[in-house]
Each structure stands twice: as C-alpha cells, then as structure tokens.
C-alpha cells in the first residue's frame, strides 16, 4: 500500500476580529497550507500548517515549493507502517514542512480511536484590561471554559492590569496561566514572578528567551511558579537539556513539530515529572481535530487544559467545528481527512496542486 498521490491547497481563513500577537503583530486572516496524502488503495490522511515567517520561517509559497522540491520526491512510494520522518532526515531544519508531512501520514496510517471529553483552555491575546475581561466572560458564557492562557509582554504594569481585571471578573476558581513569548529580560523576572504568584498563575511560559544554560536555570529556580518552555521546544532532544537546568515543563504542539515528535516530547517530560502544554498553533477546525486526537492519546493529568478554541474565532472553515460545552471539547475518532470539506476547500483555496507518483505537480 505505497503512497502514490498528494494534494496541496493554499488558502487564508478570515478572523471574526483582528488578533494582536506578541510575536508577528496584528492579522485579520490566517494563512494555511493543507496537505492530503493518498495510498494506492485510496486511503487518505490530511493535515494543515499555518505559514508565518515570524512563527516557523515559512510563507505559503515557500511551503508549497519545499514540499514539491524536497519532501514529495522522498515520500512517494512510502509503504504503510513505514515511519515517515527517517525519509526526511536528510533535510536540515524545516520543522514545519516535516510536521505537515508527519501529521498527514500519521492520519492516513493511524486513525484516532474514540476518546473522552478533553478539558479546554482559551487563549486571550494582547488587549486592554476591560477588553480581556469582556472576552473571557463571553468565552465562558458560550462554552463553559474556565481556564485561560493570557498573552503577556505588554509591560509589567499593563500585564498586571490585565490579569487583575481577569481575576476580578472571573474569580479565583478560574485557572489562569501566562505566556510572555520571551518578551522580558532576566532583570524583569522578580517583578514578573511576583505578579504571577499574586495572580496565582498555574505556570509562566517563556518569560524570557529560555536557554538550557546555568544562567537561565539559576534565574528561574529561585521562583515558585512553574516555568514552561515553548519557543525552544522544537523536539524531544531539548527536554533533557532543560530538565538538567530545573525546567521540567514544556510545550508539545503536534501542529508545530509533528505528532510523532510531540508524543516524544510528552513522554520525555512525563519521565522527568513535568507537565506539558498542548498549545494553540492557530488551528482551524481541521487542525483542531488533530489537536484533539493528540490530547486523547496523552496520559490523564500530564497536560494542562488544552488550548483548542482558536477555530472559534475564524469566520470560515473547511471542516466541521468541534463542539465545546461545559469547558470540554467533544472527542474525535477516525481519520482527520474524512472531516475535510472538499467542496468548500476547492471554492476558497487560492491554489490547488496535485502530485502523482512521478513527482510532477499539476
């Protein structure tokens, strides 16, 4: 059952409201590339990747060209049950390209088994205090979500005002965490951790540019709020390096580094006694389904509430929306590819390419 065919779509999905990211600025729509892989018996696997130079070094056109020139010639003929990543090991870097291929191949060969409901967290991007509180209350009313990750990095005083507004409106029973996207310096850490402790944050993600070195380890060790490594965690090889410096907690994002690598990260973090964050990577409803499938595969208690609600902010979709009720998202089963709305996808895609076994695109 060799791999004989592939399809790629280039598209943008509009946001209901513009988003201000700590890294990458503001945007009103999200750029995606969607990949479909097919074997000679007609079985298909699908995956998506967002393409942002500030996030993963890719534009959509660069991703398409990298797949055409680098990945597809190596993947055509891949047999069922054969791991995909060794085929791409000769390509240096290009984590996003490898993640896209790995996730589609995993979907083809290992459909998700039925799981249980997954507790969800919502991400609040950079905004004013009153706007953040209003947005959180609306999310809680509509979905029952009672866990929020707050994008920090607006300055300690502004971050404090945002967190105080959220605590005031949401109460102490709501779980809050913070993600500074490496916005601060080591000199800022005492004030930042004092704020995190005062607001009872469950963890602080990337408070500074984190490195697995003695300086970073010593700086973070003196504070009692858990530090979670995200930006530097592009593979399981980094888990031990950071753990040796006392940083035990890490992101495991299947749509950023691939489901195979994300599972290895989760396994390594668990072995060190840490916890993982299945963080958002701007997933549409299609990518959210893959995120849910990954969440279902993790041992209970290993992960913080899963960040699976970005898709709710998109005004167009190419797959059914995963329903969120009482703070949990409905489970998925089967292949992600089976959720793909081909008619809608073909109507909104800016480009559609097909690849056959001769490695030529049409």
UniProtKB/TrEMBL annotation:
Keyword Metal-binding among UniProt keywords: yes
Domain of life per record: Bacteria
Molecular-function annotations in GO: catalytic activity; metal ion binding
Swiss-Prot/TrEMBL keywords: Metal-binding
Classification via SUPFAM superfamilies: Enolase C-terminal domain-like, Enolase N-terminal domain-like
Xref: PANTHER family: O-SUCCINYLBENZOATE SYNTHASE, O-SUCCINYLBENZOATE SYNTHASE-RELATED
Name of the featured protein: L-alanine-DL-glutamate epimerase-like enolase superfamily enzyme
Organism: Roseibium marinum
């Amino acid at each position: 059952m060799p791999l004989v065919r592939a399809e790629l779509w280039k598209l943008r999905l509009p946001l209901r409201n513009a988003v201000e990211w700590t890294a990458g600025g503001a945007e009103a729509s999200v750029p995606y590339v969607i990949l479909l892989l097919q074997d000679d018996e007609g079985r298909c696997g699908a995956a998506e990747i967002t393409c942002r130079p500030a996030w993963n070094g890719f534009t959509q056109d660069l991703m398409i060209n990298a797949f055409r020139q680098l990945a597809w010639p190596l993947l055509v003929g891949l047999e069922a049950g054969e791991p995909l990543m060794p085929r791409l090991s000769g390509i240096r870097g290009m984590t996003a390209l490898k993640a896209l291929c790995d996730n589609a191949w995993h979907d083809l060969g290992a459909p998700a088994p039925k799981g249980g409901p997954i507790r969800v967290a919502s991400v609040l991007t950079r905004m004013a205090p009153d706007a953040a509180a209003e947005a959180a209350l609306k999310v809680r009313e509509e979905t029952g979500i009672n866990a929020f990750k707050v994008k920090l990095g607006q300055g300690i005083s502004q971050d404090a005002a945002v967190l105080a507004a959220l605590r005031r409106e949401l109460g102490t029973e709501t779980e809050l965490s913070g993600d500074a996207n490496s916005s601060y310096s080591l000199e800022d850490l005492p004030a930042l951790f004092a704020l995190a402790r005062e607001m009872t944050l469950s963890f602080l993600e990337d408070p500074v540019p984190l490195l697995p070195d003695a300086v970073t380890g010593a700086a973070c060790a003196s504070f009692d709020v858990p530090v979670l490594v995200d930006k530097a965690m592009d593979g399981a090889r980094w888990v031990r390096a950071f753990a040796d410096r006392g940083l035990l907690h890490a992101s495991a994002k299947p749509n950023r580094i691939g489901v195979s690598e994300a599972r290895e990260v989760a396994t390594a973090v668990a072995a060190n006694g840490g916890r993982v964050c299945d963080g958002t990577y701007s997933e549409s409803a299609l990518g959210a389904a893959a995120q849910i499938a990954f969440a279902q595969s993790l041992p209970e208690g290993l992960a913080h509430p899963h960040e699976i609600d970005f898709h709710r902010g998109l005004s167009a979709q190419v797959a059914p929306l995963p329903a969120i009720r009482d703070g949990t998202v409905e489970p998925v089963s089967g292949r992600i590819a089976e959720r793909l709305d081909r008619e809608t996808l073909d109507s909104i895609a800016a480009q559609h390419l097909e690849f056959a076994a001769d490695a030529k695109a049409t």
